[in-house]
Amino acid sequence: xxxxxDYYTYQDLEDLCLGSRMTISRKVKxxxxxxxxxxxxxxxxxxxxxxxxxxxxxxxxxPEDRWRNRYMTKRRFG
Length: 78
Description:
Number of strands: 2
Strand content: 5-15%
Oligomer: single chain
Radius of gyration: 16 Å
Largest sheet: 2 strands, antiparallel
Structural class: mainly alpha
Mean pLDDT: 86
Distance between the termini: 38 Å
């Protein structure tokens, strides 16, 4: 069973640099971003995104960083 810790809020998504509240809302309307879940039918119900879904989105849709791929994967610690 999922708990509140398994979800992101708008503020969490902004902190992850995925866009502002308006940008995220526009992307959801255009079908470019996963839709949120709401747990009531109220117009002002809190919108929450499953962390696993957002992590999958970030992996698939955010651009690759060629510098990290080039230099960080070859690094060995220990």
